[in-house]
Design a protein that fits this description.
Blueprint lengths: L2 H9 L1 H13 L2 H4 L13 E2 L5 E10 L5 H10 L5 E5 L11 H9 L4 E5 L5 H7 L3 E3 L16 E2 L3 E3 L2 E3 L4 E5 L2 E5 L1 H26 L4 H4 L3
Parallel strand pairs: 2-3, 3-4, 4-5
Antiparallel strand pairs: 1-5, 2-6, 2-9, 7-8, 9-10
Helix pairs in contact: 1-2, 2-7, 5-6
């Protein structure tokens, strides 16, 4: 099933867009106060500064340096989607670079998350497409095909299973993967916590004794 159809069937197009807007309003680290699962290895970080991404996943598993698998995945992207790339444990060959980022941008993608490395960092900075990776490399995938590669299947990314249509949240702090249900369930708690934080900070800045401010 195409991810667009899967997301729209599960949530309804309007509901999915409403969830995206509410997720974008949350401070993603606040979610870490309430959940323990879904947090991608912190070694996978944004290669750009000042980014914030919230969108449903399109997934690809790349085996044996298969560059064609990435091209197939790019054709499955749609506006607002986040491409999640499982490199099958390969942290040396970069599947994402200038052409990939341009193609993803042309498809309206919100970002790319790679459990591996990327390349063409100067071009990526120019494109401004949010890319999350373990670092950069000059070594890239090759024009080979592997039967082990697959598009829109459950994949692994930074120790977290990612299913097509799962919500991908990423900013300068890291990446979180949540099912639509988990995202909807935590939203209210996170938004309430964010709303209460300014008053808490103001009390600390005003010099109120910490024992009366902090939960101990």
């Amino acid at each position: 099933m195409n991810v667009v159809n899967a997301v729209n069937t599960d949530l309804g197009e309007g509901l999915a867009e409403g969830l995206r807007e509410r997720l974008a309003a949350v401070s993603f680290p606040t979610i870490g106060h309430f959940l323990e699962d879904g947090f991608v290895d912190p070694a996978i970080r944004s290669l750009l500064d000042g980014v914030k991404v919230a969108g449903p996943a399109v997934t690809v598993r790349i085996a044996e340096n298969d560059a064609y698998a990435m091209n197939r995945a790019l054709l499955e992207l749609y506006p607002g989607a986040v491409l999640v790339v499982d490199m099958s444990g390969d942290h040396r060959h970069a599947p994402v670079g200038a052409v990939t980022a341009a193609a993803a941008t042309a498809q309206g993608a919100a970002g790319v998350v790679v459990d591996g490395v990327a390349t063409d960092i100067l071009e990526l900075r120019t494109t401004r497409l949010p890319v999350f990776a373990r670092g950069t490399s000059c070594l890239t995938t090759k024009r080979v095909r592997s039967a082990g590669s697959a598009v829109n299947v459950p994949v692994q990314c930074g120790g977290v299973q990612v299913n097509p249509g799962d919500w991908v949240l990423g900013d300068d702090n890291g990446v979180i993967i949540l099912s639509a249900e988990a995202a909807a369930n935590v939203l209210g708690l996170a938004l309430d916590s964010d709303a209460a934080e300014p008053a808490l900070l103001a009390r600390i800045e005003a010099g109120e004794p910490l024992e009366s401010v902090l939960a101990i």
